[in-house]
Specification:
Shape: globular
Distance between the termini: 11 Å
Number of helices: 11
Largest sheet: 5 strands, mixed
Low-confidence stretches: none
């Protein structure tokens, strides 16, 4: 029986997780970073400060009934698995992981936030066999910081070799959702509240997405939502239009990728993909449960377990 600790200190969530490789069960603990009402995000200095305060609380909750020793530690240390990818908020998690590693005599396994999202989704969908059997697949990572479509090839060294094949060329999907939500007076992050509003929309919007190849352009959605707001449209219908527009773009990216790369598996991850309206409009693929789709440390734990040959 092996126990693997995962840590992720993303832009808006402090996360930790324990993976029991014998049962393939994951226990998680998370705290959102506090954002003042009406604001659209946090400065990195504030994110680091809040993570520093919150991570002891998250770990206390996670490890309240833990006994024994750890067999591995996985931690997200950068946003994407590419050279030059960097955000200060991940330094908090890295420092804690390395400190625990010194006490436990374990060298932490470093991964990216994006890789963690994909691995958490694979775990949630019951599709970790794609990694084990070296089967390529396409993953979407859709959040406030990314609207990425990724060709993923399982790799011995990096676990996943990730190639960007489509993205948003202006605003990301989560940014559009949060900006629209803040305009409507919702609390940040706005995804869950905006989805509840959209479910009450009285209009079935049919939207043609703006595409450039397999890339999408989403800034026009924010502009249209503002026009609807200024024209006195209901919050429910504005939310419905916003979600329908993002859904249309992701659907079109999926269709274009399937045409180019064939019927390989599609995996959907990231906070935006926990939206049931968006996932319901897609006719293919596998979707993680919300706790494993939103920011989490489960994927970092899975990364370490795979790296150590425990999965």
């Amino acid at each position: 029986m092996s126990k693997i600790l995962g840590i992720d200190t993303s832009n808006y969530t402090t996360s930790a997780a324990i993976l029991d490789t014998a049962r393939m069960e994951i226990k998680q603990s998370k705290m959102l970073l506090p954002v003042k009402h009406g604001e659209k995000g946090l400065r990195q200095s504030d994110a680091v400060f809040h993570h520093t305060k919150q991570i002891p609380l998250v770990l206390k909750d996670l490890l309240s009934d833990f006994s024994g020793e750890l067999d591995g530690i996985g931690v997200s240390v950068k946003p994407r698995p590419v050279s030059g990818s960097y955000m200060p908020c991940f330094l908090t998690g890295q420092a804690v992981a390395e400190s625990i590693g010194l006490v436990q005599n374990i060298r932490p396994d470093f991964t990216s936030h994006q890789t963690g999202h994909i691995l958490a989704a694979l775990y949630s969908c019951g599709k970790l066999d794609l990694i084990i059997n070296k089967i390529p697949f396409i993953a979407f990572h859709v959040s406030g910081g990314t609207t990425d479509m990724l060709l993923c090839r399982p790799d011995e060294k990096e676990i996943l070799n990730i190639e960007l094949i489509g993205t948003a060329l202006d605003l990301n999907a989560g940014q559009v959702i949060d900006r629209t939500g803040v305009m409507l007076g919702l609390g940040f992050p706005c995804g869950e509240e905006l989805e509840k509003l959209a479910e009450k929309s009285s209009v079935a919007y049919k939207v043609k997405p703006t595409m450039k190849g397999m890339n999408c352009c989403l800034s026009g959605i924010e502009n249209q939502c503002r026009k609807l707001y200024e024209a006195g449209e209901s919050s429910e219908n504005i939310a419905g239009f916003c979600i329908a527009s993002i859904s249309a773009a992701i659907y079109k990216m999926t269709v274009l990728a399937a045409d180019k790369y064939g019927e390989m598996p599609f995996i959907y991850a990231g906070g935006v993909m926990s939206n049931k309206i968006i996932s319901g409009n897609l006719k293919r693929g596998y979707f993680a449960e919300p706790d494993f789709s939103k920011d989490n440390a489960a994927g970092a734990a899975v990364f370490s377990a795979v790296r150590k040959g425990l999965i």
